[in-house]
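Batch manifest, entry 17 of 40.
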Amino acid sequence: MELLFLATMLGLLIWATILLLPSRPYSTRESLAVLSAEKTTLSEVTVLIPARNEASTITETLAALKAQDSQLKVILVDDQSTDNTIKYANSAKLDNLLILSGAKLPKGWSGKLWALEQGRKYVQTRYLVLVDADIILKPGLIKAILTKAKKNDIKLLSLMAHLRMSSFWEIILMPAFIFFFKLIYPFRLSNSSNSKIAAAAGGCILLETEILKELGGFKSIQNALIDDCALAKKVKQSGYKTWLGLTHSVISTRRYDKLSIIREMITRTAYTQLNYSPLLLLFCTILMIIAFLIPVTAILQTQSIIIIMGLITLCIQAICYLPILRYYSLNPLCAILLPFIGMLYLFFTLNSAYCYYFSKGICWKDRYYKN
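Output type: structure tokens
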């Protein structure tokens, strides 16, 4: 009972600390909205899209880019697709679209970064926008981020995509994905020049082409599975300003309507996030049990003090989670499911470690990676 008391107290302390942190990692204040069309043109911007078996999404992605600006240049690198990705890309009839057939993946590279590196060599504009093949950019979005980057001297600007939240599992688990990402990488600290924390969201990234060239292109992060954050770290370490925010104007159309699909998505990078360290995995497991399982266990006890601490902890959890639920216009009652969600994410993390040690490695797009 004393051990449970101490664990409950520690869980309360963890969530109270998160709530009171000056950085407010749960806040949604770092966001960008496209309020009106900027007058600037996009002649100095090239969009670079890596695509591997994206026939189901690429048409919408390119159609959205067509609506941005007639002078926008687009390079699509087909990463050895086995479906009709190229056929559907051509059907978009984009005037300034260049489609490249990607070469075979060399050893030591991740597929996405190899595709981006091949496309980068064809970019001749001052700015480069990296867009995933399942992303829809609302009209005016590229002009808005270009204007913000120029005005604030931001060299790398990225936006967290509005993930699909329609099916049961998407509503339950996808907001939590963004919530946990923000806890790991507080946006306020990531955007501060005085902090070593650096993060980006790979769905939509704007950066200056010369700076990427200065870094050595994507070769400098060639085997990174969490490539967006690795790129942001490189840019920030070079003394340049980065910025990351939420938005409703970058929309992911990728479906996560099955638990197995979400598990695969989390499994791909969870153990990578822990630097493949068994010690960090053990620490993460203990921390998440204390943060999510112990408060629920506490309210089922008979000792009043333990029950009260458990209830307070669950209330603080909900308070921290509510801003994300409000931002995405979801039912606030979903906040009471956070302990269950947290334990599911712990299971995905353990599964990620299992795949790393006892299978071919982390699987993504029919390729296996094992750093």
